[in-house]
Structure formats: structure tokens, C-alpha cells
Amino acid sequence: MLPAPAAQEWRALAQQLAPQLRFGVSTWSYPGWEGLVWDGEYESSTLSKHGLEAYHQHPLLRTVCVDRTFWRPLTASQYAAYAKQVDDDFRFVVKCPALVTDAQLHGEEGRTRELNPAFLDPALALQEFVRPALEGLGPRLGVLVFQLSPLPWGWLNRLPTLFEKLGLMLAAVREALSAHDAVIVAVEVRDPELLGQALVDTLKAHGATFCLGLHGKMPPIDAQLPMLRALWPGPLVCRWNLNRVFGAYGYADAQKKHDPFNAILSEDIPTRTVLARTIRGITGAGQPAYVTISNDAEGCAPLSIQRLAQAIGA
Hints:
It holds the Pfam family DUF72. It contains 14 helices and 10 strands. With about 325 residues, it is of the alpha/beta class. It has a domain at about 65-205: TIM Barrel (Alpha-Beta Barrel), CATH 3.20.20.410. It is globular.
């Protein structure tokens, strides 16, 4: 499997960007990226297993977000299989499994069954996430993302207890990373009620940062930037997940409109403009930046990255 020849036309654009800036996508097994990322037509199953071999040779794609870890933990050997497909400069963004970061247990159809007794459990986070990722990815591990799923009212009504539990888990994670200073720990939330000084204090106390989550359930980017300013100086971790026009739960609608994900169909110039300015400021100060984009943001993640890179250069 080889990269698309046309992708090399973006090399000059990539060379204009700060070296500490890493762009990537969320999940890479899309046949529709033929001619953009892949050199030919491949089945989704083939891309899932071997696509990183071509993906990492794209000049603008220097990271990737492994979303599948949210649904089921990966073993060290599974992480190692990914690491073998990329070069030494590549870095991975990985999500903590929902069994740690979701306050509720869900049935097969997604219905809530009961509260999760292992929510934010430090030992489970290390066992099922941090240690396997460290062992399997080694120096190619870039960011550990802890995305807190939407919380039930019982937790939103007890925020001091929530931040205490989050702090205990982050303390254990930071201790496990004591010999891996380059790995960034980021917390993403899906409840606007969590944005505030208490979250800032918790993140600061344990050497973590705020993940800028651009998603229909969260306020627009401008309203989230005060969190980054309160944590300054620090890195940028941004996941542009879903265009706000589809609402908080509009993944299915976004997928239906954007399939086969080879064109920009829901362009979001305001978000792109503010994000480009934010990236320029943070990388200009010498801080690292990891920005991953989903097809659900504008329709085609590789093209979104190209246009964002052009906006940064402009």
C-alpha cells in the first residue's frame, strides 16, 4: 500500500508549518480518501489493518487519533502493531477506554443500565490504558486523552467530588509517566458545566492540559479558549469532532451527508479561522500542538487539514 502521489504536492505547505505542530485524523479506514491519502482503491478492512503504512507518509499527517480504544481497550501488542507501521517521527493520540471515563454503564443498544463503579478508577486507568499504550507505542506515544462522557445529573450536582476523583486518577497517571516527560495528558469534557476554575486547578495540579473539544454538545471554540489561557503556558490538544450544525447528537446525519468523505460539504470557516490563529499563537511560543480532525467536521478530514494549514500559513 502506497500513499497517493498527489499528497506529495502538499509537502511545500507542510514545510511552512512549525515543526512542533502535528495534524492528524480520527480513524483512517476510509476508501473515499483514494487519491488524497491512498494510491488506489482499498477495502475498509484492509485500510484498518495496513493503512497507516501509507498514511504516515503524507507530509501533513504526523499524528493520528486512535478512537477505537474508547470502545475497547487495546493490548500492548496491538499498540505495537500500529507503531511498526510508522516512522520514528510519528506520534499517536489515544483515548482512554469508556470503562474508565464514562460514569454510566450502557447496554448493547446504548441504553444506560447503571452507574459505573469503576468511573475514574486510577488502577484501572493504568492497567487498561496507560501501561499498554506506553509499552506498545514507546517513544511514538504523544497524547493520552481522557474524554469524560456526558455526565448524569447526579454527578453534575456533585462537581467537587468529581474533580477530587479526577485529580486522584491524574495523579496516578502522572506518576506512571514520571520517566516520559514528552507524553501529554489531556482531559476532554462533554458538559459545558465543567468549564471553569475548578477544572483548571485540577489540571494544573497534576500536569495535565485541557483538550479543546470542538463538538456540537460543547460551546464554540471562542468560548473554550479561556480554559487554555488559564493554563498558559502549555501545549494545544484539539479534537475537531463534529460540525455544530448537526447538533449534539448528529453523528449519523453528518455521516449520511458526507459519505464517501472525499469532499468539503459542511465548511466551517469561523471555526477554522479561530483555530488557525490559536495554533499560530501556541506554536509561535514554542509549545507543541496536536490537532486531529474527523470527517464529521467538514466532510473530509484530509482536506480540512489542508485548508487549516493554508489558513495558518496565510
